[in-house]
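Lecture notes, unit on binding sites. The following record was shown on slide 14. It pairs a sequence with zinc ion.
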Amino acid sequence: MQEDLRLPYYATGDILRAAVRDETELGLAAREYMDRGDLVPDEVIVGAIGERIDSSEAEDGFILDGFPRTVPQAEALAAKLEELGRGLTAVLLIDASDEEVVRRLGGRRTCVDGGHVFHIDFNPPERDGVCDVDGSELIVRDDDKPEVIRHRLETYHEKTEPLIEFYDHQSLLRRIDGSVAPDAVADELRRSLATLKLEADEAI
Ligand SMILES: [Zn+2]
């Protein structure tokens, strides 16, 4: 969906996983936390994201996915943006119950070589355990395993959920219903982002 908007898209998870795969300094620091389902420490993540926001490709805007996840991260992001003379246009919350989250994450299957993602209910591969794109093996990523999902949810409620109030106070929060089919969630996200982009462009 970032293609529609022509904005750089920064998914913290992808940035971190690439760093882990390439065994960069960031990757090595992040790996032990991710494997346990814990949050990567703020200084590690804020450094990586700040670098990208500050690059020329992000001049006209950017989309962050999976960041911030804690109030201190949000504060660090706000400080960085202020330093750059910029601000957030909106924060999108995909609202879903724990039960729905477990169903969605637990059914995810990821291709070992290409990172292609399938889902046993919503987007099953043609052959069980085999990637449709490149024939590689499909696995349950460590952070999609049931015990890790439960731990991720606990972490979410404790550390990330307070962000809802944090951003609601600043009138930045927009809620998206995460209980509908994945395609419908994606459509709604796309619509919201397009509207926001339009409003931001008109404001210039
Ligand atoms: Zn694949």
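Take-home: The longest strand covers residues 91-95.
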